[in-house]
């Protein structure tokens, strides 16, 4: 099972599940814990190959949308969480879209920061170049290059350096598996069926998230359950760079959903903060 951490407020409060981006781990949500734990029970999950999940299913040769969704559902099942709100950043939003497809009944609402729906022409060119050399150069060379391109400005430096530091904990094979999965990303969002599964979604994007904001603004316009909040003077990792605005907007969104819908909450096996590593 994937590694996770929880912060339990009470049995009567809703759950928010946090999913990080490529190269990060649950620690990238450190600016959300203080504000969110006042309102919700929190669950932070490390995706395959990241953080405490570094040795999870190392035999897998490739990752799939269904497999990633199943991994998250397994954690929910273990903790007896029937349904939750979700927050994702970057790659984590792709996993959330996968959950929307394969396990929509587990989702109350979704906040997607720095969301990745499809790639611009420039992003596709970068991916292709990286694909040609990924087996021959140290993965950190590619990661640092992409981080610099995605977050080029001076005020992006903190979030850029944080992800680079955490990415050093990945291994070459793990990076390659996720890199290969990136080519499947554009096919995931179109498989979502918002007409059949009505799930409230809030996309939070930095106006300087050049690679991804365009597709998000264009494609979500067709989804009646989706709204987009754009943060000015902000790049890709908006939960770190503009944490106060991100927190306020996301907490208000989740709180409004809770007021509109009946509660379906549950408490894990032990009502305390803990870490599960098996």
Automatic annotation (TrEMBL):
Residues 15-115 form the AB hydrolase-1 domain. One of its GO terms (cellular component) is membrane. Gene3D superfamilies: alpha/beta hydrolase. It comes from the Bacteria. InterPro entries: AB_hydrolase_1 (IPR000073), AB_hydrolase_fold (IPR029058), AB_hydrolase_sf (IPR050266). PANTHER family: HYDROLASE, PUTATIVE (AFU_ORTHOLOGUE AFUA_2G14860)-RELATED (PTHR43798:SF33), MONOACYLGLYCEROL LIPASE (PTHR43798). This is AB hydrolase-1 domain-containing protein. It comes from Sporosarcina ureilytica.
